[in-house]
Amino acid sequence: MRRYGPAVLLLLVGGALLRISLLSAVYMRYVQAGLRPYLVASGVLLVLLALVGLFRTARASALPANGGAHVHQHGHTPSAAGPRLAWLLTLPALALLLFPPPALGSYSAAREDAQDAARGVGTFPTLPAGDPVELSVAAFTSRAVYDSGHSLRDRTVRLTGFVTRGEGDTWYVTRLLVSCCAADATTSKVEVRGVQAPRTDTWVTVTGTWRPKGALGSSAAWPPLLNGATVKHVAQPPDPYEKR
């Protein structure tokens, strides 16, 4: 049975990739949506390689005993006993196939407590007419911290993210931003005041108005404030990350 190990491992990994990218949207917990075709192609290729390996191994096993021994003596049959520890590689593949981990949440966000202010202060495009205006958490934080035109003033905004907690009763609506995959995720968060904090990691939509804080472009302006009016519990979106 051990001679089938490499092929089985390829089959598990390929199946896991197809499970998260072709049969569901779980892959968006790890990478951007644009990488889906590459994940699907990789999964298909691994499955095909596994099937070829299984076929060749089964064919070699069916050779006559003396013929098989002759081939073995010349080193042309696959080893029936690969390193036993290699089977441990099946555990991550099975975990991804059967129990895909959740998207990054409050623990990941808590590891980044400050935001780089290197972008500098400047003017931003005019917001769409009508209130409330739907903004990403990253867009709100950028305008609140860097917009010299104060485009958020006197506007009602709607933000969606997950709940993280600070000291005391402080809480934030938070999103993680990715450039390529979850490994490069950074945090955007807005402190919400005036409404009761939901449970940590709960996904919510918060409606409220910007409350100016600190000098533009300074660390005192981070994280920005929102005077909350309403908080609504929502389901986690299929793509939990915002894009840069």
From TrEMBL:
The DUF1980 domain covers: 145-241
Q: Return the InterPro entries for the record.
A: DUF1980, DUF1980_C
Keywords carried by this UniProt record? Membrane, Transmembrane, Transmembrane helix
Q: Where are the transmembrane segments?
A: 35-55
Name of the protein described by the UniProt record: TIGR03943 family protein
